[in-house]
Design goal:
Elements: H1 7-14, H2 20-29, H3 35-44, H4 47-55, E1 70-71, E2 74-75, H5 78-85, H6 88-96, H7 111-118, H8 121-129, H9 144-150, H10 154-162, H11 177-180, H12 189-198, H13 213-219, H14 226-229, H15 245-252, H16 255-263, H17 278-284, H18 288-296, H19 308-315
Antiparallel strand pairs: 1-2
Helix pairs in contact: 1-3, 2-4, 3-4, 3-5, 4-6, 5-6, 5-7, 7-8, 7-9, 9-10, 10-12, 13-15, 15-16, 15-17, 17-18
Length: 331
């Protein structure tokens, strides 16, 4: 009886394909000739199935034609998929079969970029041993170094720097890897920042909107700005909208960052291009701790429009408990 498998049936069978008899069944049915089987094997990390598919003559760079293996209109390829999932044995088998180490798939990402994004260090080592392009870009011109830094994966960052990854490379917004070291709170962001600076990253580099890494840190509420201030990051730099690190820090209510910027001479009285002040931003976001600190520094509420001034007068009312303090019930 001739078998006419559907993608769904193939999925069900391949899930059991660690059994050699099932692999033989797939081969007899001709299913191993499908790029779908190739991609499914690597996503499942199923080396026996992958070996059978490759042994049947399917090229390791065959692209998936099913929706499951297409991202934003771009096909996925087996090597990038294996490295994204961290299936080292499958990646090794694909490279041995002649897979293109730098072939780009979904999001225009190479296998190295995908491995760096997901933090699969051993897959990265394997790819670099096969001369993967450490400078390869994805569709938004991001590099493996940027992806590893964004996720705070310090071991991956160090490996890429050992292979001379470009710390000055910029994505399509003009941001460098150093900028990405302050966009999230995942992983060891501080160590990534320090490693990049030690490798020559420029703390003064600004993206297309004029934002430096210090501004990114303030903008994303990142408290670890010491490694940027030590080499002389400019606390007075302003972006195209006139926003400085101090303004962004007050907006996000990170008092620790505000205090550190103040100690390094940042201007508390700075006004953005549209007339916004630090006190306005702190009030708009209900950042009581920052508001109180600014008021204690004698920032005049007269620069604020009503009803903002009324709010500040309430903030300064004698005996008013700090935000979050327990209030005794009325008698």
């Amino acid at each position: 009886m001739h078998i006419h498998p559907t993608p769904g049936a193939l999925l069900n069978v391949a899930a059991l394909a660690s059994d050699p008899e099932v692999i033989n069944l797939l081969t007899a049915a001709g299913l191993e000739h499908s790029p779908y089987a190739l991609l499914l094997a690597v996503q499942l990390g199923n080396l026996p199935l992958l070996t059978a598919v490759l042994g049947a003559g399917v090229h390791p760079d065959s692209e998936g034609s099913f929706a499951e293996f297409v991202r934003f209109g771009a096909p996925m390829y087996a090597l990038a998929s294996a490295c994204e999932s961290g299936h080292l044995s499958c990646a090794r088998a694909l490279l041995a079969a002649g897979a293109d180490v730098d072939k780009q798939g979904g999001w225009g990402a190479s296998a190295l970029v995908e491995a760096a994004r997901m933090g699969h260090l051993e897959c990265m080592r394997l790819l670099l041993e096969h001369n993967a392009d450490v400078h390869a870009r994805n569709s938004w011109r991001g590099t493996a170094l940027m992806e590893a830094t964004r996720a705070g994966r310090i071991t991956c960052v160090r490996l890429l720097l050992e292979h001379r990854a470009d710390v000055h490379a910029r994505d399509d917004r003009g941001a460098t890897a150093l900028h990405f070291s302050k966009t999230t709170h995942r992983g060891d962001q501080t160590a990534c920042t320090q490693a990049l600076i030690a490798a020559g990253a420029n703390v003064h580099a600004a993206d297309h909107d004029g934002r430096t890494t210090l501004m990114y840190a303030a903008l994303y509420g990142n408290r670890s700005i010491g490694p940027l201030l030590e080499p002389g990051a400019d606390v007075h730099a302003a972006d195209v909208n006139g926003f400085t690190p101090m303004l962004s820090a007050c907006r996000h209510g990170v008092l620790q960052t505000v205090l550190l910027l103040d100690r390094h001479g940042a201007d508390r009285h700075v006004v953005s291009a549209d007339g916004t002040t630090a006190l306005m931003l702190a009030c708009m976001k209900n950042n009581g701790d920052v508001v109180q600190w600014l008021l204690d520094k004698d920032i005049s509420e007269q620069i604020l429009p009503q009803p903002m001034g009324q709010f500040l007068m309430h903030q300064r009312r004698p005996g008013r408990p700090p935000r979050g303090a327990a209030v005794a019930p009325r008698a």
